[in-house]
Amino acid sequence: MPVLTPKETTEKSVHFQEKETQGRSKSTVPMVELRSVTKTYHNGSQALFDLNLSVKQGDFLFITGPSGSGKSTLLKLLYGEELPTQGEVIVDECNVATMKGDRLSFLRRRIGIVFQDYKLIPQRTVAENVTFVLQAQGYTRKEILRRLEPTLKLVGLLSKAHCFPDQLSGGEQQRVSIARAIVATPPLILADEPTGNLDFDNSWQVMQILQKLNSFGATVIVTTHDEQLVRRCNHPVVQVRNGQLYRK
Ligand SMILES: Nc1ncnc2c1ncn2[C@@H]1O[C@H](COP(=O)(O)OP(=O)(O)OP(=O)(O)O)[C@@H](O)[C@H]1O
Question: For residue range 116-140, what is the model confidence (pLDDT) as tens digits?
Answer without folding.
Answer: 999 999 999 999 999 999 999 899 9
